[in-house]
Design a protein that fits this description.
23% of the residues lie in helices and 23% in strands. By secondary structure, it is an alpha/beta fold. Bound molecules: adenosine-5-diphosphoribose. The site of adenosine-5-diphosphoribose has 26 residues, from β2 and α1.
Length: 341
Amino acid sequence: MISSPSKTGNICIVSGDITTLEVDVIVTAANSDLAGGGGVDGAIHDAAGPGLLEECLGLGGCETGSVKLTGGHDLPAKFVIHAVGPVWHGGGQNEEALLASCYRRSLELAVERGARSVAFPAISCGIYGFPIVRAAEIAIGEVATFLATNNQIESVFMVAFGAETRSALESALASANGTGDAQLIVEYRPIGVVHSPFTQMKGTPIQPSRADGARGTVEVFPDFTEGLSDLDGFSHIILLCHLHRSTKSRLKVVPYLDTEPRGLFATRAPCRPNPIGLSVVRLLAIEDNVLSIENVDLLDGTPVLDIKPFVGEFDDHSDVRIGWLDAVRKRRWRADDRFSD
Ligand code: APR
């Protein structure tokens, strides 16, 4: 997950089932007896196994607007925070403040337990009947306010179970970002993964052309293997990857070829709002779903988003200007660890 300096940059809206998320904490929409129930709470108890209910029943219940923490039991999440949202009675019974309190106190408790990633469902928006549009504004507003003064939590996933919830969350996030319009959130599924000799950013080649023949492979996942047919006739391929270890984004960087700060989009630095890497590598062979490649400049484990054939005549232009690079390109290329972990 990528963070950006804005207070909403660590918030990610995802669709699907919260029980499957590998995060430090998932929050459930519980009742005040913490006795399990339907909706998201039922799904979480089913996935966590009976140990969760047993632990819950020893907690002495929980007031509306408050939260309690248990282990994750059989869930991929380490902890479950049980938040008791308000039942919607029309808005005159402090429902908004109680809902806000669920989000705030969940994050406070998550921080106390050392969490860095937290996932929320739309608390109170199912059986408890809270209108989703207002609930989404409260949820995003409360989370964004919290993140503005907290550096520990790196990712907050707002989980939308259904299109209506998703659209309400997206609009709320767009408003919080000040963009007004609904923000487009793009999700990609990796089609494969890079295996390379490089396990740390330090020492990983900066460009394929500086990779000195370093070899690696791309393992394409079975669902996508069919798409590899006819690729073997190409000597070079373009790999578009998610630079998964790039955790900060900046809009000005000092590129490794220069000593002056330059606009991010005039560089290929990895610290981008969407850290997508582009590498042109030599394709040595394809065996089933495994591509052997040369001049790999990517970390081991880098998720691959797309593969395209490199075609010189498509990508080569005779009238190319290279901006600030023109003045500095004769300098010695130096090692660069400013993006290292
Ligand atoms: N993953 C993510 N979200 C889910 C999932 C899931 N697996 N299942 C349901 N949801 C969504 C619902 O679509 C809704 O938007 O969670 C949101 C909250 O709905 P409820 O689970 O009904 O929670 P709530 O409205 O707060 O009611 C709480 O329901 O079962 C009980 O014990 C619980 O009594 C309490 C009440």
